[in-house]
Design a protein that fits this description.
This protein has 24 helices and 19 strands. It has 723 residues and is of the alpha+beta class. The chain has 6 domains: 32 residues; 75 residues; 104 residues, OB fold (Dihydrolipoamide Acetyltransferase, E2P), CATH 2.40.50; 265 residues, no CATH class; 38 residues; 128 residues, no CATH class. Strand 14 and strand 15 form a beta hairpin. The radius of gyration is 29 Å and the shape is globular.
């Protein structure tokens, strides 16, 4: 009895200690939340985004009433728990998450439109030109309200995009052309960029290429505001190219109008490897430079006139003019997600100037995120949204920490840092913080990280801000009177410096770390840990560091796939050290480019010829055998190889049209992949390890959603520019 009593006392003591510990933790959390009360609002867009991601992560489309029912339930809980602060916070977080889920569901249904179900053509297409953008040696022409011979109106896409190699039409023209049309392409690799999903949300129902010349039925036949803006962009593009040729003109267009399709592949690769690719995509940096330059010029000009400077509040007037210029630049740049976010933040900052309450804080970022997420929920999945918000959130958090440090130094009577070092020190600090913040997201979306981006940005960003963008603004203002040549040539000098920096940095050994695989779970850990670290202000924000470290560790442990198969079976690739061996070096260039980035291969080579071998590959006239990590994969070219190779292989891939009955009878041991498997499941990625063979498919990653109903593999019209 005494033994039982002692055990009961010990158990009771443990329970009491645990209860006291939980009570202390609860009290500490309450005190911390009270200190962080003004930061709670910042988490609303986070939970909203979490709900959106949850919606897009589902393998199947949920019932239409699902989101509404949960939103109503969470609203009722918020009302019921309104007198209990802790539970109120939980209910509001649940409500924000549910509203994000609902926003994604409503947006998906709202933009639903017909899409091409199968390849079509050559066929005659008539439509209104909405926009024209350069794309290498061709032009991308977007047609709205098209008419396609052979398709009824209820099956005709509302918008389609064709690649034109002849002289392009103008926005607003009504045209007729012969074209080969395809459904929007599926991802080239499981987990890769989903052009099909992007097309769904912009109403793009088909892509393709024109055959022959484009016939203009009615020049400037009409169109709305979007066509008028596109026409202005196209006109500016031609005016710039009339003065600057080659990459100079293409880079100038990328910075002024956002049309970057004319930049050469070599320059794009150099910008990407040097960490300067963000300069090609108009974002917050460009918007801030434009508004800042206009604000400075207008205010300085008004201050130079004493009668105006004494009567008017020149700072507020300059803020209004800068906002107008920023709005025009937003339209010229195509109103992408980074520019939307930047414009909202800039509007709030200039409004603060008008209200005499200018202060750096996270709230404008939160408002911008809420607006973007509510209007375009799908943006949260794209690299533009993630990279731009990661950079700006981290930078503001870092400068808030610096501000608190300066205040503590001032309170302690310590002298401030030297003003001579403020600009270079701030530039270095900004470059380092932005590079660190965006590196995981760049690795997740582009499978590479630029290791010398800080050094490149230290030169390129000041040149862009102090020389290139001011010259570009002056050129825009001079275009109506035809005097844009001189500022454009001055702008070209700065562009040459940026190009040289990009190519020089990219040429350094190990400039880009390729083949980095950031799994979704690792990316989620980095994002959650980073937000916890940046959005809170007190000491418990450091709890986000372990999550960031764990996410990066997942990326270091992930390996690229050993084998890649395209959806149509035209292209197969295997990894052999730093070389990617492909069945063809000419077919499916879009897949090949993505696969090399995914695997980190430096060189692409063709499969060995018959009766030869190359590293891990051994081929004869009937089959090829690939051995890696103790596993063997047989690629069957002829049915005669099935009896021998199937018996010794862990996986068999049929590259020849062999009947399923024959394949099942003669190869019933290992796993078998046929052409029909590729067509139905999409591109395949395969990992080989001593533990076995792991196969992942595009359909398995994406599930069965409205935007996955039809699609073809790798279309040449869908390139990395779409990202």
């Amino acid at each position: 009895m005494s033994v039982n009593s002692a055990a009961a006392d010990a158990a009771g003591d443990v329970e009491r200690r645990a209860a006291r510990l939980l009570a202390r933790m609860r009290d500490r959390a309450v005190v911390t939340l009270a200190a962080e009360r003004d930061r709670l609002f910042l988490w609303l867009p986070v939970f909203l985004g979490a709900g959106i991601i949850g919606y897009f992560s589902l393998p199947y489309e949920p019932p239409s009433v699902f989101g509404w029912c949960f939103a109503a339930l969470c609203t009722a809980l918020c009302v019921a728990m309104r007198r209990q602060p802790a539970w109120t916070l939980v209910c509001v977080a649940c409500l924000a998450t549910t509203l994000g889920f609902l926003a994604g569901q409503v947006r998906t249904a709202w933009v639903a439109a017909p899409r091409l179900a199968a390849p079509l053509g050559p066929v005659t297409v008539t439509g209104m030109v909405t926009s024209v953008e350069p794309s290498g040696s061709a032009w991308r022409v977007l047609l709205s309200d098209p008419s396609i011979v052979g398709l009824t109106s209820d099956r005709t896409p509302h918008r389609l995009r064709v690649s034109v190699r002849s002289i392009p039409p103008e926005p607003g023209d009504r045209v007729r052309l012969r074209a080969r049309l395809l459904p929007p392409p599926t991802p080239a690799v499981p987990g890769g960029f989903d052009f099909q999903r992007q097309s769904w949300f912009v109403g793009l129902g088909a892509v393709g290429y024109a055959l022959g010349r484009v016939e203009i039925l009615a020049p400037r036949a009409g169109g709305g505001f979007a066509e008028a803006v596109a026409s202005v962009r196209h006109g500016i593009d031609r005016r710039i190219l009339a003065v600057l040729d080659g990459d100079r003109g293409a880079l100038a267009n990328a910075l002024v109008t956002g049309l970057r399709g004319g930049v050469s592949e070599e320059t794009i690769a150099a910008m990407r490897d040097s960490g300067l690719a963000h300069l090609l995509a108009i974002s917050g940096l460009h918007m801030s430079l434009v508004a800042g330059f206009v604000f400075f010029v207008v205010r300085a000009g008004l201050a130079a006139i004493p009668s105006l400077a004494l009567r008017w509040q020149t700072r507020k007037l300059a803020a209004v003019v800068a906002l107008l210029f920023a709005g025009g630049y937003l339209l010229l740049s195509g109103a992408t997600v980074p520019t939307q976010r930047a414009f909202v933040m800039l509007t709030l900052a200039l409004a603060a100037i008008l209200a005499d309450r200018l202060e750096m804080s996270m709230r404008p970022i939160a408002f911008a995120a809420l607006i973007v997420l509510v209007l375009t929920p799908e943006a949260v999945l794209g690299p533009s949204f993630q990279l731009s918000f990661a950079a700006v959130v981290t930078l503001v958090a870092a400068y808030e920490a610096l501000k608190r440090r300066r205040e503590r130094r001032a309170a302690a009577g310590l002298p401030p840092a030297s003003r001579w070092l403020s600009y270079p020190g701030g530039l270095i600090f900004t470059s380092v913080v932005a590079a660190v913040a965006t590196a995981p997201f760049a690795a997740y979306h582009f499978n590479q990280a630029a290791l010398y981006s800080v050094a490149a940005n230290l030169v390129a960003v000041p040149v862009t801000g102090l020389w290139v963008m001011p010259c570009g603004i002056v050129a825009l203002l001079a275009m109506p009177i035809g005097l844009e040549a001189l500022p454009l040539r001055a702008m070209a000098v700065g562009l040459d410096v940026i190009t040289w920096v990009a190519r020089e940095t990219a040429s350094w050994p190990g400039s880009a770390l390729r083949g980095v695989i950031m799994p979704p779970s690792g990316m989620a850990a980095v994002a959650v840990g980073g937000l916890w670290l940046c959005l809170w202000r007190t000491g418990w924000r450091l709890a986000g560091l372990p999550a960031v470290v764990a996410g990066l560790a997942m990326a270091s442990l992930a390996a690229p796939p050993d084998i890649l198969l395209s959806q149509d079976g035209r292209l197969v690739a295997v990894r052999d050290a730093d070389t990617l061996l492909l069945t063809s070096l000419r077919a499916a260039g879009f897949e090949r480019e993505n696969w090399m980035r995914q695997t980190g291969a430096d060189v692409a080579e063709a499969w060995p010829e018959h009766a030869s071998e190359s590293g891990a590959m051994r081929c004869d006239i009937t089959a090829c055998l690939y051995r890696r990590s103790g596993r063997t994969v047989a690629f069957i070219r002829h049915e005669d190889a099935m009896d021998t190779d199937c018996a010794n292989a862990d996986l068999v891939v049929l590259l020849a049209p062999i009947s399923s009955r024959l394949a099942n009878r003669r190869c019933n041991g290992p796993r078998l992949l046929r052409h029909r498997d590729l067509r139905s499941e999409g591109a395949h990625a395969i990992w080989l390890s001593p533990a076995g063979v792991t196969v992942e498919t595009v359909r398995g990653r994406r599930g069965d959603r409205p935007w996955t109903k039809a699609g073809q593999a790798g279309d040449p019209d869908a390139s990395a520019d779409d990202q």
